[in-house]
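Worked example
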Amino acid sequence: MENFAFAPAYELPVWPFTPPPELGSTKPARHPIVIVGAGPSGLTLACDLAQRGVRAVLLDEDDTVGVRGASSRGICYAQKSLEIFERLGIYERIAAKGITWSFGRTFSGEHEVYNFNLQANSVSKQPPFINLQQFYVEWFLVERILELGLTDLRWKNRVTRVEQLADGVRLEVETPAGSYTIEADRLIDATGANSPIRTQLGIDAHSSRSTDRWCISDVRFRKPLPTERWTWVDAPFNEGRGVWQHLMADGVWRIDYQMPEDCDTAYISKPEVAGARLREQLGPDVEFEFVWIGPYGYRDHLLDSFRHGRVFFIGDAAHVVSPFGARGGNSGIQDAANLGWKLALVAQGKAGDALLDSYDAERQPAAKQNLQVTSRSARFLAPRSPAEHTLRRAVVALAARHPFARALVNTGRMSVANGYPPAPLLPEGARSVQNLPLRLADGRETTLMQLLAEGTECIGLWFAPTRQQAGAALDAIASLPLRLLAVGGDSSLPTLQADEKLANHLGAGDAGSFVLVRPDAYRAALLPNATPEAIATAVRTALAANERNP
């Protein structure tokens, strides 16, 4: 049997266990916000809250990031997530460590069917995608959380029981130094796909019956491959099944091989079996060393509601979708960004509890849409009937010759920031605003994310208001969390230089038009001929500000 080389394992950081102050106490301490689970969504939420000056307790049963064995896990971070990380202060580290890409190729058999460039429709300062092993993103988030200093981050704290109360949630927690009980005004479950909290509360996740199975190989090659995303619909070197090929940090390639549902997961992960697949793909003389090999399987699921009383579900605890198009981890990060500012404003008494209901009203339909999109990809990549096989062959054959058919080749519609449907707080619905580069009237450069990183306020962009309008508006919004900026014109407001790209992206631009951008960079309102009273009403509507936190 051939001996395969393995690269040295990643050295993951380990943080110390600190006995919590509640140990030995007979009366449970009360905390406004408790987050359980230090994966990407839980850490993003804790960091988001800390950035806004809001304290939280974060419990995790481990004392490191990623998983032991240092597999890459999630690797592909989409533009919206990168923009969130820009606001949270870790984007530069991610960009420096990761692999930026926008170009991809899709193959059927040995032939390229089509290629794409995701940069074409972007106006953001962040690229369409960066590839980076998940544990690095978690690592950077932890260090940023510790730097901000407001989060009580408790390692080796495992939640063993959860009980809903009339005005909160009670948690029993086990640690190496003993057990204790705490209470939370609001509990956020970020414990992942197999959430024990969801199970304890008896909430049905509606898991699919079938399991999609893959084998992941994290590999270093002696000779570099092209820095592009390559996808095979029906790879001849993988028995006609799908294959993904990505470059990550540290010169490590992530290659995902689709497997039969009934495969022997231990067998497919053996070095000699994984090595044979690589040589079948890249030739018998390819030189490489393994970093990690392992099976991956999932069953998609979706909760009916992401809020149950005082408990909120984010990330994989709320939804699991096929990995095609990188809609899983990115969606969890965006759950956190949606919920963070709402928790902050409610905690600060600046918005009503109905604002927290809007988390479910927005993110559950987004997850449902992602599930529909990725399920179609799964059916295309793993046809379940002769008719589906025939359809796929016809689409692939057409795509090689006709541009119209290329949109039908479905190897995963890449992750996008979901729009939100019309709702009481969003009469017209909402869509994401990219992180546009902006320039102040005095010539200084800024970005939308830099503006949103300062406190927890909406941004109001008013195109060429008069001085009289500006003065009246400042009076009308005096008690509201809104930062009012003029775009062009001559008013007393802080002013951005007029920019056609900005106007087009926002769908505004005529003198007097007003765009309300929420703290999560979603356009919440567009007023063609804004008045001070209409602006104040739009802000109150978006924030449920007519109510008070009970």
Remarks:
- The longest strand covers residues 178-189.
- Residues 141 and 224 are 30 Å apart (CA to CA).
